[in-house]
Write a structure and sequence with these properties.
By secondary structure, this protein is of the alpha+beta class. It contains six helices and eight strands. Strands 1-2-8-3 form a four-stranded antiparallel sheet, with no helix packed on it.
Length: about 220
Amino acid sequence: MGFANRRAHYLICLLFFFLSPVSHGGVVLSPSYTGLGIEADLSGLQWHTLPETEGYSRQEMELMLGDALSPFFGWRYANSSEVSALLFSLVGDAFGARGTEAVDAIFWFFDNFGLTDAQRANWEGGNSVTLLPYYGSEFECGSFVSAPYCSLVVWANPQYLDHNSFTGIQAPNLLSADLRYGHLLVMDAASIPSPETLFLMIVPLIGLLGTNRSK
């Protein structure tokens, strides 16, 4: 391989390095307001949308968070303080409360964190939707071996909006660690390159590749 070809190869590798940690999922950013004008407290972090994180067990997700080739590399689980701050900003002290504020919070959560196609079809068909994403580190929500993980519960039924709830609880038992609930992942706001930053990184690389080929 000639010097020019090697340089082109290195540039392609660098390009892959810059792009590979960036998740293809959506991101929830501050400021974000509910339909009642309440600002959600996202602790200055970027939060990953949920549909892309579903279908993986807790153990599978933890492996992917440390895998440089995974779309979730660089993300981490939101801790209990961050999730509590989010819940408190939306529904105050009444975690699990039912009524106008809970419904407002649920609608905001659906709109921002997203629903899978199946969940959206259920919702639009007048059926209930339950989200149970994991968050927190092991035993952060308690010291019980039977319930080592935290889980956020968002339950809503479009036919009975006055009975909906939005709360944070422990996962019900150890077996739930193998279920595909979805995961609340966060990243520091400065960790993911913005589209403008990526553009500024990519254009010089493309220019160098073009220079090498012209030679």
